[in-house]
Amino acid sequence: MADDKQQHDRRVFSCTTCDFTVDYHYKGRKPPFANCILLHEECYVLKDPFSTSGGFVTVGGLCSMCNRDVCLSNGCSLFYTQRFCTNCSVKHIQEFPHELQQEIMHKLKS
Ligand SMILES: [Zn+2]
Ligand SMILES: [Zn+2]
Q1: If you average pLDDT over residues 69-92, what whole number do you get?
Q2: What is the 3-state secondary structure (H, E, C) of 18-85?
Q3: Ligand closest in space to the Cα of 16
Q4: Checking DSSP bridges between strand 82-85 and strand 56-62, what pairing results, if any?
């Protein structure tokens, strides 16, 4: 990791499952630039560049089991009371409700 130092004051989110990488502005549940928003989970948040009223975009979160960074795309994680990466959701598939199990199986096939 030769460019470790350069990244020190830049906050970069990168998904551990796909190649998605993006600079983010805030990590947590209450983005300071958004008005009175409390997110369901700790997220990586970007200010929405097109918004003048505190808009934001959530780009990623943390798997509640393995603590890895995962993006919010369907292929990488799912949210069921907490966020789970695809790996963990497969490992613990028996603990999810039936509809979600089907969704997870469906993901695996695609
Ligand atoms: Zn991803
Ligand atoms: Zn996980």
Answers
A1: 95
A2: CCCEEECCEEECCCCCCCCCCCCCCEEEEECCCCCCCCEEEEEEECCCCCCEEECCCCCEEEECEEEE
A3: 1
A4: unpaired
d(CA 47, CA 15): 18
Backbone angles phi, psi at 82, to 5 degrees: -140, 170
Structure tokens at 1: 């990791």
Question: Which residue bears the tokens 């020190």?
Answer: 8
Q: Which ligand is nearest to the CA of 17?
A: 1
- CA 91 – ligand 2 centroid, Å: 9
Pairing of strands 69-71, 43-47: unpaired
Q: In whole angstroms, what is the distance from residue 65 CA to residue 82 CA? A: 9
Please name the residue that has the structure tokens 């630039």.
33
pTM equals: 0.82
CA of 17 to the centre of ligand 2 (A): 10
Q: Is residue 65 packed enough to be buried (19+ CB in 10 Å), middle (13-18) or exposed (0-12)? A: middle
Residue 7: pLDDT above 80? no
